[in-house]
């Protein structure tokens, strides 16, 4: 497995500085955030070339946005840009394009799944020549209601989208905080995992008892190894399932400068995550 990180942690820094840091720190890859470091489809090739010039592979490119936005004009605009990015990303030889399904609160559950599946199937068809894989991250969204972010949601999507070029950016940290066993969940979708997010979650049981699941302050995202995930077990399971892709650290640990605070602390967090994952992989 390769180890990389998601560049959103450094969205306040130019991409050249970010890839220089990644290379000097000993990372194998980076996952580039569109909003922070690419902006428009015509800049994809230059961003990818820059990363590769530093000896890094580009594991994936990620584009935030609610693909099921209830505002039809916003949805249409986002999907047009998504298709343009998909074409550019495929032509640049990047293997994975990560997007977010979102949700339309005004539509039924089935209508949401049907609509997103129809769009995803169209993207797959339009990028057949490049073979680009599309993946959704199981981030539940700002209101914890995005479709396709739970085991049942994945079943609904994969029933509709059977092409193996559609899969998951599997992030165990989100599953922990919504009460889903990440090991059991991964086993059920092991053949549809395109990339793994290396992020952990810590839960303060005393605060949870005081405020309940709908309260605040009882969970925090952490760097891998600083939360509840048993990473030796998790990565052994992934390897046993045949996964040999990229572990992409998504650094959202407030103890190490996130979000957008002390730059040296953020870099130290990335280094700690890299060292920890390297150690775990060396012992599997």
UniProtKB/TrEMBL annotation:
The UniProt record lists the Xylose isomerase-like TIM barrel domain at 19-271
The protein, known as? TIM barrel protein
């Amino acid at each position: 497995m390769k180890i990389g990180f998601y560049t959103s942690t450094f969205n306040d820094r130019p991409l050249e500085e970010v890839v220089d840091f990644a290379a000097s720190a000993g990372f194998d890859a980076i996952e580039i955030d569109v909003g922070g470091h690419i902006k428009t489809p015509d800049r994809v090739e230059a961003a990818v070339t820059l990363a590769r010039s530093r000896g890094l592979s580009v594991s994936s490119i990620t584009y935030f946005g609610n693909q099921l936005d209830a505002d039809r004009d916003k949805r249409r605009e986002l999907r047009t840009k998504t298709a343009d990015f998909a074409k550019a990303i495929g032509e640049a030889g990047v293997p994975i394009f990560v997007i977010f399904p979102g949700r339309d609160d005004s539509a039924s559950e089935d209508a949401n799944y049907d609509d997103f599946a129809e769009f995803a199937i169209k993207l797959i068809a339009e990028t057949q020549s490049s073979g680009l894989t599309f993946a959704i991250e199981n981030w539940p969204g700002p209101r914890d209601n995005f479709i396709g972010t739970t085991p049942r949601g994945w079943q609904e999507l994969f029933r509709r989208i059977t092409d193996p070029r559609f899969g998951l950016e599997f992030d165990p940290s989100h599953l922990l905080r919504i009460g889903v066993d990440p090991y059991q969940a991964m086993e059920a979708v092991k053949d549809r995992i395109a990339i793994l997010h290396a992020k952990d979650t810590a839960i303060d049981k005393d605060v949870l008892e005081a405020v309940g699941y709908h309260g605040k302050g009882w969970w925090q995202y952490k760097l891998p190894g600083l939360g509840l995930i048993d990473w030796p077990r998790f990565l052994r399971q992934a390897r046993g399932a045949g996964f040999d892709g990229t572990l992409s650290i998504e650094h959202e640990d407030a103890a190490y400068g996130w979000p957008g605070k002390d730059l040296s602390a953020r870099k130290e967090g990335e280094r700690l995550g890299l060292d920890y994952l390297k150690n775990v992989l060396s012992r599997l």
